[in-house]
Specification:
Blueprint: E1 11-14, H1 22-25, E2 35-39, H2 43-54, E3 65-70, H3 73-78, E4 83-85, E5 88-90, H4 101-118, E6 164-167, E7 173-176, H5 179-188, E8 200-201
Parallel strand pairs: 1-2, 2-3
Antiparallel strand pairs: 4-5, 6-7, 6-8
């Protein structure tokens, strides 16, 4: 199955909550010599997968080239006021008014970085160091999956100006029929945009 995938493509090694995890349909040897991205799983689980795919073998098989990892658990935990640590989840900031989902995720990311560095796994350079700058472009009406205004339910496409769109640090992109609905929904729910004003699309006047 894996051999049928061109070697020019990065393989996704499922380790989180996928319907089928990689170890359920393959052996570690199947992934060796390939570029691999670890899909999901906490850092300790990802570390275990990395070790399985890269440690020396008696048959001298080439290690997998681990090109990246991801995990949405940090965001999920942050919505409940919890941040990740190597010793488990910490909810000490849950009742603090000034702690937002975005700040909690950033705190978790700092702990994740500490974890990987402690195990000697952290890139010496970043894409930015290598001149690969990725610019955030902000949301647009094309990103909306629902025509209903998030605040009042009005069809955002039938208004005179068209939809207002905001992308929040909780991972949601919301559409509104007016600036008033955007403002009300944002403040009533204490939401914070990912990148300030850049995360808000205002339709042409």
């Amino acid at each position: 199955m894996i051999d049928a995938i061109p070697e020019t493509l990065v393989l996704g090694y499922s380790r989180g909550y996928a319907d089928r995890l990689a170890h359920e349909f393959s052996d570690p040897a199947d992934w060796r010599g390939r570029r691999v991205h670890i899909l999901g799983g906490s850092p300790p689980k990802q570390l275990n997968a990395i070790r399985q795919l890269t440690r020396p073998t008696l048959t001298d098989e080439p290690p997998a080239d681990i090109v990246g990892v991801d995990w949405n658990g940090l965001h999920r935990g942050a919505q409940f006021g919890e941040f990740w640590t190597a010793d488990g989840w910490d909810d000490s900031g849950r009742d603090a008014d000034h702690v937002t989902v975005r700040k909690t995720v950033r705190h978790s990311l700092a702990r994740v970085r500490e974890f990987w560095r402690a195990h000697g796994i952290w890139p010496e350079t970043t894409p930015q160091n290598e001149g690969l700058n990725v610019e955030y472009e902000g949301p647009s009406p094309a990103d909306l999956e629902d025509a209903a205004c998030t605040e009042c339910g009005t069809n955002v496409w039938r208004t005179r100006r068209g939809p207002y769109v905001a992308e929040y640090d909780i991972g949601a992109i919301c559409g509104y029929c007016s600036y008033g609905c955007y403002f009300s929904h944002r403040h009533r729910n204490n939401l914070e945009e990912i990148a300030g004003e850049q995360s808000v699309y205002l339709p042409p006047a």
